[in-house]
Amino acid sequence: MDVTGTEAARPAPKSASKSASKSEQTRQRILDAAAEVLSRKGYAGTRLADVAAVAGVQAPAIYYYFSSRDVLVEEVMWEGAHRVRLHVEETLAALPDDSTAMDRLLVAVDAHLRYELQVSDYATASIRNAGHVPEQLRVRPAAEEALYSRLWRDLFVAAQQAGEVRADLDVNTFRLLLLGAMNWVVEWWNPRTRSLDELVATAQGMVRHGAGTA
Amino acid sequence: MDVTGTEAARPAPKSASKSASKSEQTRQRILDAAAEVLSRKGYAGTRLADVAAVAGVQAPAIYYYFSSRDVLVEEVMWEGAHRVRLHVEETLAALPDDSTAMDRLLVAVDAHLRYELQVSDYATASIRNAGHVPEQLRVRPAAEEALYSRLWRDLFVAAQQAGEVRADLDVNTFRLLLLGAMNWVVEWWNPRTRSLDELVATAQGMVRHGAGTA
DNA sequence: GGATTTCTCTAATCTTGGTTAGAAACTCCG
DNA sequence: CGGAGTTTCTAACCAAGATTAGAGAAATCC
Asked: Which of A23, A85, B126, B165 minimizes the number of CB atoms within 10 Å of its CB?
């Protein structure tokens, strides 16, 4: 039973290093379950028994893969921040080279919203609980979030330098407001009330008109 | 300032109905303490012992005024939503009659932000924990929030009808995004990094340019 | 000033839920 | 088949923290 870094106890994939050993699958299943419960019930409301139930296992089995509840939570939080960043980065990387800075900004808005609302419980869990888990659990995830912040900062700076964002705009504040608007969406969005396409379009409009040069 | 309805156990202010009986003051002190701790530590991290300490009392004393932890929390949440709404309403009411619809919108942004960031732990507690307290505690506060939503909806509708907001804008979505942006501010704003005035100005710009007609 | 009521304290109780122990079950070769 | 290693289960264990009991201050009223 070896530990690497601040990481959870993880069973050594001794003999098996196949595609995804059964053990690794179970670990993943538990992590997924934790993300789901965490995204729905929040840190306070997340019990190991619930996570176990979703994962189709008994609570103590979790300890075979994670050394404590907090370690499990921390990993979900980190994954959430990490995955969103990766997704947005990859989406941007796939854009044609001649895309304008504003194009890139709008695509980032699209990617962020769709990913957090449709794809990933990890993202939702990470967003909703960032400010609610105990301090010590925020360290690693915070590093990821810092990277993500930088990504957005760069997008805005580039757009402003290209003259596609008003020169007098305080892009740092605007960026934080925008991220807040997008993060808070998880608290209210209901697919039955409002389509994701509409939501994305409105959010993009908020950037295009709110920050862009007329 | 007493409330009726599904309220907590409250000592009957039998003989004393002075300005603010000592008893009433203590109750208030506990409520204030709860708002402060709740706004800082969140629902999960709020212990009655902490609240008691801030209020300068022992934990069991809380039970003389509130029948349970959850009842205490619920009252803070309700107060938070209620006070913000009242403050914004009063601020708007004080505007001259010839104010434009956009003026009113921008003033509302100003009032909301300043109140939540400077004035009231109740507001902060209410915002940060809205999605994290158990379902049953959300009922009463939710009613207040619905009223607040309506206030904003009316502001936007008026502005759009007056032609001061783009006719093609989905004001409902925009409103929710804006409220999200403003609510999320409690998660990141630091007065030492960024002045409140700058923040307010940027948020107002987000509305003026993002929603307003050019 | 004493009696009654109001308020707050210390000490004890109870529940919830994370965590640990240690016994089964299961897997994977040989 | 049989045994070593891996995985998961049941049955405790334990700590934290909400809540209750009941005694003792403090205020209030006649």
From this structure: A23
| CATH-assigned architecture of domain B69-210 | Orthogonal Bundle (1.10)
CA distance B35 to B126: 8
Residues of B in contact with A177 (CB under 8 A): 181-182, 184-185, 202-203, 206
pLDDT for A24 equals 84
Per DSSP, the three-state class of A2 is strand
- Residues in A closer than 8 angstroms to B190, CB to CB, are none
Q: For chain B, what is the radius of gyration of the CA atoms?
A: 19
The model's pLDDT over B106-132, given as tens digits with 9 standing for 90+, comes to: 999 999 999 999 999 999 999 999 999
Instruction: Report the protein residue whose CA lies nearest the C1' of nucleotide C20.
Output: A60
CA distances to A80, B81, B155, B181 from A107, rounded to whole Å, are 20, 35, 30, 19
CA distance A65 to A44: 22
Q: What is the pLDDT of residues B68-108, one digit of tens each?
A: 999 999 999 999 999 999 999 999 999 999 999 999 999 99
DSSP letter, residue A7: P
- β-bridge mates for residue A2, sequence order: A10
Task: Kindly give, in sequence order, each residue whose CB lies less than 8 Å from that of residue A92, ignoring residues fewer than 6 positions away.
Answer: A104, A107, A108, A111
CB B53 within 8 A of CB B84: no
Residues present in chain B in total: 214
Given B128, B174, B198, which is nearest A173 (Cβ)?
B198
**Chain centroid to CA A153:** 17
pLDDT tens digit sequence for A130-162? 999 999 999 999 999 999 999 999 999 999 999
